[in-house]
Amino acid sequence: MPTETRFQEIKRYVRLDERDGELMRAFGDLARPELPRIAREFYDRIREHEDAHAVFTGEEQIQRLQRSLVVWMTRICSGTYDEAYHEQTSVIGRVHVRIGLPQRYMLTAMALIRIALLRIADQALAADAGPTREALVRILDIELAVMLEAYQDSYVERIEQAAKQERRDLGEALAQAEHRYVSAVELAGVIIIGLDREGKIQLFNREAERVTGFARDEVWAKPFAEVLALDDGSGSLPEQLASLLAAGTQTRELEACVRTRAGKLRDVTWSMSCAQEKAEGVVLLATGRDVTDEKAKEERSRQNERLAAIGTLAAGLAHEIRNPLNGAQLHVSFLRRAIQRQSDPQEMLEATNVVGDEITRLANLVTEFLDFARPRPPDFKPTSLTKSMEHACGLVEASAKTAGIELTCDVPSSDVDFPADSAKLTQVLLNLLNNAIEAGGKVVCIRGRRGPRQVFIDVEDDGPGLPGVDAPIFDAFYSTKEGGTGLGLAISHRIITDHRGTIDVSSRPGRTSFHIALPLEQNGGA
Amino acid sequence: MSGTPPVRSRNLLLLDGDLRSTNGLARLLREDGFSVEVLCDGASAISRLSREPLPDTLVTEIIVPITDGVAVARFATEKRPDMRVIVVTRYPNLLGASSFGDACPAVLSKPLDYAQLLELLEGTLAPAIARPGALLPGAGEC
C-alpha cells in the first residue's frame, strides 16, 4: 500500500470525495458572480480592526489581495483537490505567516468566508443545499487545517531559532563569566592557590608566582605544604591541612611563612576555605596575603618606640644618678676634712657608711634602669590569684607591722588560675604594697576578684593620697618618696602592659587605690 | 684665712628632697660657720619663708617634692628682694635663668663641688662664674 500523504490523510478524515468535487464545481458556477462582493466586504471588515489592518501596506495592496481572495475562492470551488492544490494552499498559509497575520484573524476571516458562501448555497439551492453545504464545510476546514500547519511549521522554526540564540547567548555569558573570574583570580592582589583532595596544587595565580618566585608549571600538581615549605611554627600544619581537606566545609585562618624559590622566607596570612563544588578538582582554596613588609614595619616602629622610651629613660637616669653622686661627694669632702683634723673616728665611719649607701643607690638605679630598658618577655604560666596575693602579703608583713599598718589580704571566694609571669607579678604587687605601706596611712588592703574575662587586683591605702590627679606617677623617675628611684611604678606599669593588662589609680585624701586588670587568657603568647 | 672677705651670707635655707646629701652639706656648712636650716619639700619651704627671721640665702634643687624650686625661689625673692638664690641641681639644663624671675640664681650642678659653693657664698668666686645664672643656658637674660 502506497504511503498516504498528509493531504490525503486529511481528506480521508473529513470524507472529502469525488462527489464533493462535483458539488463544488456546480456551486462554483453559482457563486462566481458573487465572489468580488464577498472579497470587498471581507476587506472592509478587516479595515475596522486596528491589529488586522496593520498588516497591510496600502490600498493598492488591498486591491491586489481582494483579487487574490477572489482567485482563492474560485480555486476552492474548482472541485479538483490534488497535491498541487495542497501545495498552493500551503504557500498561501506561509504568506499569512510571513506577513505576520495573527492566527485569530485567519480563523475568524475563514468564518466570514464560510458564512458568505453558505448563504449563497442556501439561497440558490434552498432545500437541496445540504450536500453542497457539507462539501463546502469539508473543503474550507481542510484549507484551515493546511494553513494552520504553516503556522505550526513557523512556530517550530522560531522555537528552534530562539533555542539556538539562547545557546549562543549562554555560551557568550559563560565565556564572559569565565573571563571575569580568571581576571579576578589573576589580577587579585592576594595569593590564590587551589588544592585538590590530596593537597596538590591545581591553581596558582599571578600574585602567588610573584611572592614565591615559582612559575605555575613548576608547582603544578605538587604538594602545597611541601613545595612552599609552609611553616606556622607548630609543626602540625600538614595534619591540619589534611583534616581541613577531609572535613571539606570549614574555613580557617592561619599564619604560616613560605619559602620562596630563592630560599627566602615570607610571612603570609592564609585563609583556607573549602570549595563545595569540585571544579577542576579544586576542593580547597588557600588565599594568602604577604605580610612580611608590614610585619617588618611594625617591628621597626615598635623598636623605635622602645628606643625612644629608653632614650628618655637614659636622659632621666643621667639626672637621677647626680643625687647619690652628690651625697657621696659631700660626704667624701667631709671625710677629707675630718681626716685632716683627725676627728672622731665614729663620725668618719658614719660618713663612709653614707658614701657606701649612695654607691648602693647608684647600683640600684642602674639595675632598675636595665630592668626597664631591657625587659624579658613575661614567662606565662598558670598562676593562682590567691597564692600570688598571699605570697606578696607574706613578703611585706614584717615591714607593715613595723610601720604599724593593718594589712588585709582579701582573696576571692574561689581561687582562679590565669596566665602570668608570677615572679614579675609578685614584683608589681610588692611595689604597690610597699608604696601603700609607706603612704602614711593606717590600713592597707589588697583585694582579688575574678571578672568574666579578667582578674582584678586592687591595692588600697588610707594615706593622704597622690599630690594631684594628674601626677605622672607611672612616669620613670617621678617620685615623692625620700630615696625613691622613681622607677617602681614605671616598671610595674610596664610589666602589667606586657601581660596585656591595665593598671590605673584613683586617689583622694584618705583613700588611694591601684586597680590592676589582667586577662584570663593570653592569645598568641607574648 | 687672710684678711676679711666680704661675707654676704650667713643664714642659709637648704631645700632638697635628697635629705641625706643635704644633711651632709649642712654639716660642712655649719662647720664653716653658717647657720643652716634644712627642708626637704617645697611646701615646708614656703611655709618657713612666710615667717621671720628670713634667711639671707636660699640653696635649692629645682625638682623637689610638692611644688618646685623655682616657685620657692620666686616666693623667697618676693618676701625679701635681696635674698640670694643658689640652685644646686641634678637638672642643670632643665631651665633658663629667666625662669626664676627676679631671683636670677647662680646654678651649680650635682655632684656639688663644695669648695665652689663656699667661694660663692663667701663672695670670693671668680666673677665669670659668680655672675648670676652663669651656668644656665640663656644666662645673659638676667
The profile of the biggest β sheet of chain B is: 5 strands, parallel
Q: How are the strands ordered across the major sheet of chain A?
A: 2-1-5-4-3
Q: Which structural class matches the secondary elements of chain A? A: alpha+beta
- Quantity of strands of chain A, as a count: 12
Low-confidence stretches of chain A: none
The percentage of residues in β strands of chain B lies in 15-25%
Strand content of chain A: 15-25%
Structural class of chain B: alpha/beta
Gyration radius of chain B, in Å: 14 Å
> Total number of helical segments of chain B?
5
> Which sequence of SSEs, written as H and E, runs from N to C of chain B?
EHEHEHEEHH
> How would you name the oligomeric state of the polypeptide chains in this document?
heterodimer
Strand arrangement, largest sheet of chain B?
Answer: 2-1-3-4-5
Q: Specify Rg of chain A, calculated over alpha carbons.
A: 53 Å
Main sheet overview of chain A:
5 strands, antiparallel
Total count of helical runs of at least 4 residues of chain A:
18
User: Span from first to last CA of chain A?
Assistant: 99 Å
How many β-strand stretches of chain B?
Answer: 5
Helix-strand pattern of chain A: HHHHHHHHEEHHHHEEEHHHEHEEHEEHEE
Describe it.
The complex is a heterodimer of chains A (526) and B (142). In chain A, the strands form three sheets. Chain A has a five-stranded antiparallel sheet. In chain A, strands 7-9-10-12-11 form a five-stranded mixed sheet, with helices on one face. Chain A starts with 5 loop residues before the first helix and ends in a 7-residue tail after the last strand. Chain A has helices spanning 6-14, 18-31, 35-47, 50-53, 59-76, 83-99, 103-125, 129-187, 206-212, 216-219, 224-227, 237-247, 292-320, 322-341, 345-373, 385-402, 422-437, 488-498; strands at 191-195, 201-204, 251-259, 265-274, 284-290, 381-384, 406-410, 417-420, 443-450, 454-461, 502-508, 511-519. Chain A has 526 residues and is α+β, with helices and mostly antiparallel strands. In chain A, strand 3 (251-259) and strand 4 (265-274) form a beta hairpin. With 142 residues, chain B is α/β, with parallel strands linked by helices. Chain B has a five-stranded parallel sheet, with helices on both faces. Chain B starts with 10 loop residues before the first strand and ends in a 12-residue tail after the last helix. Chains A and B meet through helix 14 and helix 15 of A and helix 1 of B.
